[in-house]
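re: that chain from earlier
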Amino acid sequence: MKDFVELISAVEITNKTNAKIQALVDYFTKASDKDKLWLISIFTGKRPPRPVTSTLMKQWCMEIIDLPEWLFLESYSTVGDLGETLALLLPEPTHKTDKTLSDWMQDVIRLKPKSEEEKKAYVLNAWSGLNMQERFIFNKLIGGSFRIGISKKTLVNALAKYSGIDANQLMHSIIGNWDVNSISFEALLNGDHINYDNSKPYPFCLAYALKKKLDELGNIEDWQVEYKWDGIRGQIIKRNDEIYIWSRGEELVTNQFPELIDAFKAIKPDFVLDGEILALKDSNVLFFNDLQKRLNRKNVSKKLLEEVPVGFYVYDVLEFENEDIRQETMAIRRQILENFFSENELPNYIKLSEVIQVKTWGNLKAIREGSRSINSEGLMLKHKHTEYHVGRKKGDWWKWKVDPLTIDAVMIYAQKGSGRRSSKYTDYTFAVKKDDGLVTVAKAYSGLKDKEITEISRWVNKNAIEKFGPVRTVKPELVFEIAFEGIALSKRHKSGVALRFPRIKRWRQDKTVNDIDTISSVKSLIHAN
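^ sequence. v structure.
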């Protein structure tokens, strides 16, 4: 497992995507084909069920080193990762075990039906034959998830660089149905188990943020104005009676949205549609937080389908009746779409994106400001005479997002991050005034510079007043400006409101807790939402 350990170590010490890709390429260059297949399997969610629970592993570790649980939990809260905590606490190895990644994974499969006593004997013997870093990897393989910063896209780009095969084809291949024990590495890369021609997507056309005055864009009649929605940008592809859904992140997400497949099954022409997957209920767009419940699921239950139904807002058509029409103008492609919708009976959750009709640029400001009331992020401006470009081309497509809402809140809880941030407090809970006390209103972990995080972590260490596992209650003194995209009433939150995409806009060192917002002033923003 030496090569695999070196790969994980190389990935952990960098946040640069290119460095991770190169580390993966180096691994593919020297690892055996079977080990390569297992690596792909592990990082694409095809790993076997874990045979040992984290509770048992924690229990066995405490028995070995005779450590009280409270001290183990303190160690865990400091390290931030159970697998790493176990690896650090265990005594030095008594012998050397040298197995390949493939060997370890076959052990994991065989261990699943064993008794608890047999599992304990196996794990303890493995621990005693591995050094600290090897134990950490072993713990991840047998009892935890591999969340170390290797996304499917990063993995695919590394495979593309290693093999010279198209990245989209590789994405389809590794996401498809395959078994590590019944396919060769070469067959997997070549996609022998798939028909890539039927599912091949196109690169997305993207927009720049609008930073110029509207009248600088010229005649408004030359522009198509639409609402900007915040869901999952995707392409729905129908070729030869097969339907595929690709996300903008170049991931095949077909199985996550069965209602979208059903909607297009009976439609006769083949096509490639560009649009937005949104959580829709009673024709209203829900929060992205609702849509997140549907993401990255191997199986979507009937209950979840009912609780969070999804729809598709169609923006564009890239291929129609097996003809690539991206070089046609936006106006022509729009007409094809309108004809498509008029000639086919589609369910009400498949919608053609509305074109906003205005006569002057001045009319657009009020429409943009009011877009938040329908859970839109703002407006999209697309030139009618442009073709469908690959990536971004400045001047043809613009996104004009509504300004975020903001409140001032005080930090009351802090928690350490994970991985490289496990030594610093990076996750914060914020509160506003309610009556004579405080009520939590948001959690956020993004928006601060590394220097600020370091300074806040030092402050938390000095001003923590209670401990709840990894969470620290702190004195309500540090005030932050919190930005968010929308707000709604919520019965699930103690404050009675839910903020959409809360993030830290800035640390208000010029303000005290006396200056923060009240829950009444926060709720008043619902009317501005």
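The first helix runs from residue 2 to 12.
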